[in-house]
Batch of 3 targets.
Target 1
Amino acid sequence: MDDKVSIGMDSRRITTSQRETTRPFSLKKQSRLGENIIQGFLLFCGVLSMFTTIGIVIVLGSESIAFFRQVSIVEFLTNTVWSPQIDEFGILPLLLSTLLTSTIAMFIALPTGLAAAIYLSEYASRRARSILKPVLEVLAGVPTVVYGYFALKFMTPLLKSVFGEANVNIYNMASAGLVMGIMIIPLVSSMSEDALSAVPRALREGAYGLGATRLETAIKVVLPAGISGIIAAFVVAISRAVGETMIVAVAAGAKPTFTFNPFEAAETMTGHIARISGGDLSYASIDYNSIFAIGLTLFLMTLGLNMISRRLVRRFREVYE
Amino acid sequence: MTEKQTDTAQYTLVVRNMNVYYGAFRAINNVSLNIERNKITALIGPSGCGKSTVLRSLNRMNDLVNGARVEGEVLFHEQNLYANDVDAVEVRRRIGMVFQKPNPFPKSIYDNIAFGPRINGWKGTKSEMDDLVERCLRQAALWDDVKDKLKESGLALSGGQQQRLCIARALAVEPEVILMDEPCSALDPISTLKIEELMMELRQRYTIAIVTHNMQQAARASDYTAFFLMNDQRAGELVEYGPTGDLFTNPKDKRTEDYITGRFG
Amino acid sequence: MTTLNEDVKSGLPQGEASRRNIASRRRKGAIWRTIFLSATIFGLIALSLLIYNVANEVFGYVAIEYAVDPATLSDKPLDELNKDELVAVLQGNMRKNAFRTLENEKPMANRSDSEVYDLVVERVLKPQTLETWTLRDSWFNKAAIDAQVASDFPEAKLEFRSWISTSFLTTPMSSDPLRAGVRTALLGSLWMIAITILFAFPIGVGAAIYLEEYATDNRFNRIIQTNINNLAGVPSIIYGMLGLVIFVRTLEPITSGRMFGADSGNGRTIVAASLTMMLLILPIMIINGQEAIRAVPLSLRQASYGLGATKWQTIWHHVLPNALPGIFTGTILAISRAIGETAPLIVVGASTFIVTDPDGPFAKFTALPIQIYNWTSRPQPEFAHIAASAIVVLLVMLLSLNAIAVVLRNRFSKRG
């Protein structure tokens, strides 16, 4: 990039010296080749992300079309059996276990994350914040495969000892969901805390001035005022849970099963994609195409959730900024 | 200067030798001040002189500032607000506050008024609450503007209306004193005038202390005036306190005179 | 107490009732405060449990059975022997032909001390793990362990083992957990990250500059911005699928290295994984970069323009140097994300068993998280020990990266 700068300056020097023969200087517009090249490169960088999205849509779309030539969309969306060996391609078992693990995760992450956000934003002293916030940040930085290990080696034995060895499968959705919930707490708490901190101080003072306690101020004034930001955090959290792969791949099981029992093994959408693509897979097989149909479903779900979330955040900002 | 007064019957709030610190910094130096019952007392002075700090110390709003500490006494019904066994929540219910920028809650107009009574253990029926809301809005001269849109958000009102909503909200918890921290600084002249008229009305029922940076407002709309100034250590001090008419026409302290004449040109 | 609204009956509690009302509200407040605090501390507990569970598997007793008792090999402990003595041990306990084969492969004189030591272990001692214990058991139930070893494995030796060690870091993958290491995975991760940064940094910073300094507020640029925000929320496994189709299959002639004369058979190479990771971390890098650039005060730009600088000169000499600490911090955070990502690597096709060091961008490779995933999935308890050890290696890498980010942030935020 350094070269480009000097090119830009050189070209200018040449143009000015040419003009010096006729006039002492010129205020006319000069074309700066170097600047244009750089701007072109920067534009390319910005536009590259568009290609990524287009790439995702084309890749998922075209492979899915190949899949849906052989399997009808209706079957894909309504069949409760996913078993490529016998040509059964119903996404419901995968979708169900994705939703089950995500729901369990949300039961942990949403209340805990929100309560932590309230504590950090409304109660914590500067000292307490300086200790607790980094802990949550570290928790957010732990790779998901490590959480997978934690689910399989800690949460599953714990569940077995609480609910009985025989009642809990070694691979089960509850374990994966609970640990996923722990993983998502920092996301919920940091986004919710942002929402709560953005509520103007004046509103808190207004409540205190009427004789409200700290709790009443937090719950009845600050929380309602920041609610759209908090819901946005919740929606992003759901999207994270739906898209999470490694925890479920390690701990939830490797067989698509249509079951509502969280203590049974059942493969999720992401877990299935990881397992199938991890094996030696022929690019021409319907198995290969099928994971793209699952991927497309997953992509549309998370995209929808993220768009809802951002709309909520924007509405929240419009009120206070 | 104020004469030493111990008779609290005449005075709603008696401030004795108050010092306020932010961490190690002394923001207020030895202020003593008696606020008369059912009168409007204006706190004036150049910016940074600590008038807002004094006001916020009168209902323990300074508790909410990290590192803030108040020394001395503020007597209210012969009880020191800063005694160990005094509950700040109870204090703030009895001594209400209206802030510089209108800060209605993002709730309906009705709920803005009902909020205070509800959290403070209101024991009435729905229709009694309706009555209370109406009464407070009437007292704040807002009823006619909003009676048809009580369910609409308080944020939908104009700035002046919002401020009157905040006053109505403060009245709903039946305070004895209303502290106003530059309540008109964010308002246009017409809204300001309305608030001043409202203060004159409310004076019959409530004791009012108001901080203002606008000397004309103090001269127009107050019974007593306290003039504050920063000393050499940047701590706020009370320079002169007396009936508004006296202080503006016949200031005893040279500094007060300078300030008043300087401002009035 | 005088109520000033004497004309109307007050619905608010007065006197004693008021005091009771406040006391009960205070109690409620205290209870909820405790609940909120507990929720916050829950994170700390979860983190401690996680670390405890990892540490618990990293150290502990191991019952090992040797083909030859190490004590009979020499009168000194094995690890105190020098190389010549080790060679003598080797010579004395192997068949002549076998020893000669080794000598032909690489003369003993050319092998390092530790290589010879490893040979002694591998060819003479032939250790076999019979049973392993966790740190907690080793600590609190030593007596029970002793008893169990005495009754079940009378031939075995009980050793306290740290599964993580220098040899764990420096030996390649092996199917025997006692001898397995993360060397290949570590190198694979480092190669991948290096190439990822090489691509992602200029493009990420470039895009951030474009969006903050050049892009006007029009429809086109708004779409780009929205698109980047959307991409940041796409699950990582989707990036893996994109990488599989584009980099592994479509661009196979490039990513397999065939165009550069380094054919590795197919596109499942380091460079394919790096490009996938680049797409994954670009949105994060761009968003962080934009924030850093936005934080540079406008006055600085105006001062530069006022001296007749062009737009790019202003950016290069004034905006970027001031935004750089923020950009670096953002980059480090993005890298930490890439180091720990597993799902896209699985889909792109990182190998799970590979023993040769990666020798360039077109090599087949494995990576630390892949290794952890693979070992965690094995049911045998020995693999839990090495999975935990690999986790320690990964976490230490991430923590050091984050420490660098924190130092950078503090150093530069003080200066600003």
Note: Confidence is low (pLDDT under 50) at residues 1-7 of chain C.
Target 2
Amino acid sequence: MRTTYFQQDVLLIILCPIVGFLIQAFLGGIAKKKLGPSSTRNLFGFMAVLAVAVPFVVTLRVLTNFGPVSSPLVVPLAPWIDLNSFRAPFEFLIDPLSLTMLLVITGIGSLIHLYAIGYMAKDKDFTRFFTYMNLFIAAMTILVLANNLVLLFVGWEGVGLCSYLLIGFWYKDKANTIAANKAFIVNRIGDFGFMIGLFLLYCLMSSKAHRHTRFLSYDVLRTSIETFHNHPAIVTGICLLLFVGACGKSAQFPLYFWLPDAMAGPTPVSALIHAATMVTAGVFLLNRLSFLFVFSPVACGVVAIVGAFTALFAAVIAFGQTDIKKVLAYSTVSQLGFMFVACGAGGFSAGIFHVVTHAFFKALLFLGSGAVIYAMAHNQDMRNYGKLSKYLPITFICMLIAFLAISGIPPFAGFYSKEAIIGDAIGNQVFGGSGINLVTVAGYTALFAALLTGFYMARLTWLTFLGKEERWRSISTDHSHHAEAVPTPALEVQDAFGFFASEPLQLEEEDHEELTADHNPKEVPLIMSLPLVVLAIGSIAAGFLLNGKLVNWLQESVQTLPFHEVSWVTPAGITAGVLGILVGIAVYFQGLPQKEGWDIGKWSRFRVWAGSQFGYDKAVTGGACASGNDIANFLSSQFERWIIEGVLGGIARTAKRIGDLIKTTQTGFARLYAAVILCGVIGLVGWIFISVRGGF
Amino acid sequence: MTGVPLIGYLALSILMFCIGAVGVVIRRNPIVIFMCIELMLNAANLAFLSFARYQPWKPAVGQIPTVNAYDVRGQVMVVFVMAVAAAEVAVGLGILMAIFRLRDRVDVDDLNTLSG
Amino acid sequence: MNLLVFAVLASAAVLAALGVILSKSAIRSALSLVLNFMLLAILYFTLHSETLGVLQVVVYTGAIMVLFLFVIMLLSTQGNINLTESRDVKKIVGGLAGISLAALIGVQIYLPLASVPAPQFHAPQPIGPSYGAPEPLGLALFTRYGYPFETVSLLLMIGIVGSIMLAKRRVR
């Protein structure tokens, strides 16, 4: 009874965005022709928001019906892969973890959809944008609700696809499509690991004489602890391979470099997909499989140390960035690193806690930066900003809240989750005893990264909103040409104020209006500022409202390792945040320091180096491209010539020769054919006569 | 017609069929070729009907031979053959007309554009 | 007596059939074919298949052969319909092939028939009162053979449409 009740709700949650996607995809173009762009925008924008808001409301209802202490509930919907030895149906899992993720996805998703109506208002591909956005929400809900790893993989690939489509949304600019391709390809590398991990898990589970055929479903997996216990090496392998997948999706160190380029997409996309939801899928995966990871201290150690290194590495890179969205992108990478530290330390639910709070303040930061970019004629270079608090008061206050939240200042949201992470890591018992181990090192590293977080966020805030001068006032052609010398490629071609170019190059010629000295920034419209305010409230309140409660609640679905309390973590965390901010203020109080100015030649070597990601991106991308090129060259020169031309061409030539030979019998004389048929009949009858009847 | 054995009808059928087949091979006029095909079809019809007439049939004890007891399969087959022949003639002659519109002379040996 | 009548009818039919393939003129061929069909209709009557005999006259000699003659007339106004049939090797080969085919099939059929002593192969069987009447035939067509019957009617309709499309002049 209970199951059927939830069945409808789950169906509603999944179908709403899918239906929205179909409507946008198939009726959007027609509507634009029939109704005109303006009413299409109102109608389809509203529908897009509805397709995400309804699942949010339904999720809330499920939450109230589910109750605080219920055990996880499997909701089967339909059969899918149905073999004798293996089944993976369309079945969904309602438990604290999936509900938490659902609330984040649909809640923040609907706010960002609302914001995007304003942000994308003038784009001619308005409905295409919301087509992809709704499809993304659909895929993401499938990802978090799935009750088996195969179905999860469907959502996993679906969000990857939407990410690709949305990064390359303004596809006429080649840089955007390159960024989209990069994201997709790097994700493939991660998915490769994920799939191999999945196959390994399949082998491990299917080799056991198992009562269940649904052995990739979580509820079955959780009861197979004995199997995991008996095969520690295989479990470690599975965990590490799945972690490779998580690294790809969540932009961790070896595979992080697609995320900064992903900022080429529209800002709402950056906020929703590349900050708040999709990139947390890796953390979610680790949480879902926490019962697996707790069996492998090695895998946990690797997760923690990779996370910590990423947190530190990305935070350092953030100092070399001048593009406001790039700074936030590296900040996202860094914060995701924190979440992985939590997972590695066995405090999986602390990671989810940070996912929730991070979703609030990072979405807010991105939407705020979108508002700034919107107000500043689509110029994203922070060196052109300054004193914007005067023009954008609402945005400024919201961004300030988010800044304090991400820096870990109490009582804002980030403080609680970050403190939980660092506490878990430093006091971990992953390797049994206390003492110094990999995870503890990761904890200390994370603490230092927290300090850097405060520092670079202060840099962003002061360069953008505060400082002493409105730097775009002194803009000259000289400056704007230097702006192109930023080590990162200029991803968006900027043009007319408030105009979103689907055809940037063409518009550039028509009415190219750059950020000029007499530009007056305007505050964004209500439809865009409303989500900002809501998210700001969330950034303040989410921390102390959920602190402790969320972690307790998640205990039902997430397994955690014990850790001992470290009393000095809280003050240390606060100190790190405050110290970072203070240093930041001290450096950037005046605005743009001379040594970080327009002339990159005067920058410190280290900063330039950090700005170019220490050459990592270039080495990996360039190396991969070069070796791919070599392979392709080899294939085209040798393989093509000898194998394709020789063997396949030889087969074709032989076939042609045989054909030519046989062709001569096709004279085209109908009577000859008839005569041949006649002869055939005679032969056949004669054969029957002789062989079947045996002659006279 | 009592007194005539089955083999008589069959012999006629065989002869007509073979004459038709020979005609298809030796004649160049497409209309005559069509006629030969009709001849062959009719030969087959004759065979069907004679087999139907001569088929062994034993009524059960006490059963009065009624219409339904007799098998009409042979006759049904002939009806179908006639219908198919009619369709074939209609289409074939239509094709002939279409070809005549393009050429002065119709000789099947001239229509060899399909040669390889 | 019956055998004699049959022999006359049969040999006439064979001669008519030979006339179809041997006469030079297409019209003569067609008329020979008409004669052949008429004789066949009589033979159907001797087999007690009266309905089909009537159908043979109406459909073949009445409709199909008229169509043939009509086409021949139509075409002979436009061009030389009497092709000069050259004496080539095909004729000899064809004739030989035909004779051998006839011999083969004949032997094939004669031998098993001759080896069966049962009288039913040598004399017609007793028949019911309405054998060959339209009623049982129609009944069978519309009941047991309904599906093939409908298929054949579809075939005919397609044939009609197709021949109209082929024969009509292209309007440019």
Note: Chain C touches chain A at residues 90, 93-94, 97-98, 100-101, 104-105, 107-108, 111 (CB under 8 Å).
Target 3
Amino acid sequence: MALKSKIVAGIDIGAATAKAVILNESKIIASHVIPTGESVKKAAESVMKQTLDKEGLSMNDISYKIATGYGRRAVSFADEVITEISCHAKGVNMLMPDAQTVIDIGGQDSKVIEISKDGNIGNFVMNDKCAAGTGRFLEVMARVLDSNINEIGSISLNGNEPCQISNTCTVFAESEMVTLRAEGETRENIFAGIHSAMAHRVVIMGNTVGFKKSVVFTGGVARNIGMKKFLQERVGMEIFVPEKPQIIGALGAAIVARNKI
Amino acid sequence: METINKIESQLRFRLKELKQAKEKGKKIIGYVPGGYFPEELVIAAGAIPVCMIRGGDKAAIDASLAYIDRWLDTFYRAQIGSCLSGEDPYYNIIDILFDPLTDNSNRALSDTLAYHTDIEIFPFGVPHTKDESAHEYYLHGINRVKKRLEELTGVEITSDRLEEAILLCNKERELLRKISLLRQSDPSPLDSNHFVMMNHASMIIDKKTQIETLQAIVEELGEAAPNVKEGPRILLTGSTLAWGDNKILNMIEDAGGNVVIESFAEGITPYWYDVKTTGDPMKALAEKYFMDRAVPAWFRPCNEMHKNLVRLAQDFSVNGVIWYQLMIRDSYKIESYYFPEILKKETGLSMLTLESDYDPYETGQMRTRIETYIESIVR
């Protein structure tokens, strides 16, 4: 019973992936990421089960569960729901207490969050309701050049003359890419241009909040090494990426859950 | 509160009442919202004022695209769409539409309806600064309104008739003010959805009926225990809060927020000041409706609006400010960049800015923004 009372979970149901983190006091004992797929409800149940299985735990062992992400309300077994913006701030604050800014780019949206001294949100800004500046944008661009989404970041690093991409609207940028490809531009330069344009957009949006040291990059797109490089160039300071940037929202939810018991 | 339900019912049956009144020869006088049209003139002419304040419908926005560019304020596009598609029955029963021209958005409404319909459109100018010549210009405008109403109804708007109408409208403002001020207590005894509905009703339903209802509400609130949940107190401000655009209030409430005071260019009756009952009543109307009116964002300079919002935030002890503007309303968009710094400096409060085009697909992100904001200011 003593063990049970200290184990909590955070579940982050994003547009592209579902994540879960199980926390025992301040230690992450299990985490898992799966594609969200067609049903957010099923994704929540599945990612929770697979995370529990890693440590041989059952749902009864978890004393408090908090759901976050765009599908948070579909997590029927959660005790509470909290927005992903609050959770990313909490998760980053635990991993890097001196961090003051979070850039979170997920499948459907991007956010820049200011963390106050007490680890809460100071201010935040979120992209408008379109795919520009999100993981979805990169997915579409990767498909145009028949490339793997997990490789386009490294490919972009080899672009010695990034193309000028004037549009970050997904539809228009796709047309620009088709034109550049027809003109014989290398895919390295095209992907460098795409990453640079997207970083530019995210940084312009984030300037309303401001970038203060240290800056941490989270969300699925933070796994993209090219995006980190171009964001660093635009922000003008080093950007840190946690070991598992995708689970930071779920981690934040678990931290809040821990504070509830 | 039972009386609140009564307002809902009165709003539902208002159209039928108006049709019956029209059949009996009454003139139905439409006006564009914004707080610059003195209803007193219509009442004194023996006619019925109706504000064209309905909004929030995506279908009306879609319908407007056949008549106007999409780069126009959402509310006014919705008016164009709902009128020209024939979907808004209020546009079918008005005898005239008075439009106090405040910015390019409602000028576009006037011009578009004048071109495409046979509704008589009567625009008159509202100055963008407060000085003596502007005051005189506005007075000239409402004198033109008075003359046209007299021609239309065949009723002379005498000083006696006007003073009687002023007393009636002052009573309504006094009651709205009294109810609103009750919300300075913590917790507030009334939720914002109800107060906003009272405001919309004051622009639509019969004045005497509305006064009786508001009086009953004041009495009920005096007797009833506070009935509102705890939660961060919010000032909700912005360009337009239309009748039917309930999304924002519902989402704030769902997120645990508690709107205790509202300030909008369109959608909230300017109830803070009464019309003076001494001296020339036309001059008194100009004084109240133009000089006393808390200025909207299109006014030059806009400091008075900033000061007013800061004062409301302080007087109603709010924990946060939510700025809800409609798309392509440049004046509000511009101020939304300046005002957060002023607010922070004067009160220490943060502000959340939201923008709507009456599109249901905004809901998910808007909800996340509101919930995050409430989480960040929660007491």
Note: Chain B has a mean pLDDT of 95.
